[in-house]
Input
Amino acid sequence: MKRVLTGIKPTAENLHLGNYFGSIKYMLEFQQSGEYDNFMFLANMHTLTQLHNSEDIKKNTLNLIRTYLASGLDPQKTTIFNPAKIPAHAQLNWVLSCVTNIGYMKRMHAYKDALAKNTEENITVGTFCYPILMAADIILYDVDYVPVGKDQKQHVEYARDIAARFNNIFKPDFFKLPNPWIQQSLATIPGIDGRKMSKSYNNYIGLFDDDKTIFKKTRAIPTASIPVQEPKNPDECNVYNILKLFLSDDEDKNIREGYEKGGLSFKEVKDLLYEKLVEFIGPIRYKSSEISDEEILNILDQGTNKAAEISSKKMLEINRLVGFDF
Ligand code: AMP
Output
């Protein structure tokens, strides 16, 4: 059975549509197909590169798992786990960092993004090495596919490269080479300002947003000043670019026609977007309010035990290969 694995960082209380469509939705599809061995982890070790407040990390963690479950992830079909409790992740991280060159790491987006906002002296080593830990998280499980948004594609490719490098040095075909899993139409979900939806840009629509907030956010999406009757290009309209995530093929066809022929106002499309978002987010928000912390911790414990069993066996083999076996 092919194996799928992905994770989300608990950096904020509220996940957003970008996380849903760039990660959770794929996992729901894999789970639904019944043909894959599914793993969804909590990228809490990665969160430490951004957040140094234990209470916030704990609160965000509970909300993250709550969102996974409220969105439909079933712990019987998808192993939900906490890598920070599995020593093999940090151990493999070290082994991989010893076969990775600094020059290679300097080409990583995570580092370049950090460099665009900060001087090198102020970037943590954790931020610089983040893709190495991500590679360890993935290749420890001999994963086939890693569903991600476009922003993480390069990091999955690095995981592939480093797995191949390790295999080349220590043992041919030892690690499976993972593949990014990205659907073109979901590669980058735009935020309300048109840039990539992101917690750090504060341009997101959250999966816990209440109806009033959703209304305000949909109203705040900038639109061009084109009279209602004039034809418009839907692909240049950010309201449409978010709305299309929720449209059936027929609805999409009608809306596109409305734009292209003219006569459809931006207010009408914003109203429709608001309706669709409330219809989509309302049940997730409601279901998540029904999930207790105890339930989450139990699920996490069980998933972590299962993941630890797999990865500690792999780590024993890695230790043997590099010469740490006595
Ligand atoms: P992060 O919040 O950085 O931990 O991201 C968790 C997952 O959501 C990763 O697979 C990202 O690629 C994906 N993701 C985050 N933002 C977006 C976005 N705007 N569009 C598509 N995928 C996204």
Observations:
- The chain is about 55% helix and 5% strand.
- The CA atoms of residues 29 and 286 lie 22 Å apart.
- The pocket of adenosine monophosphate is lined by residues 6, 8-9, 18-19, 21-23, 43, 148-149, 151-152, 188-189, 196-198 (CB under 6 Å).
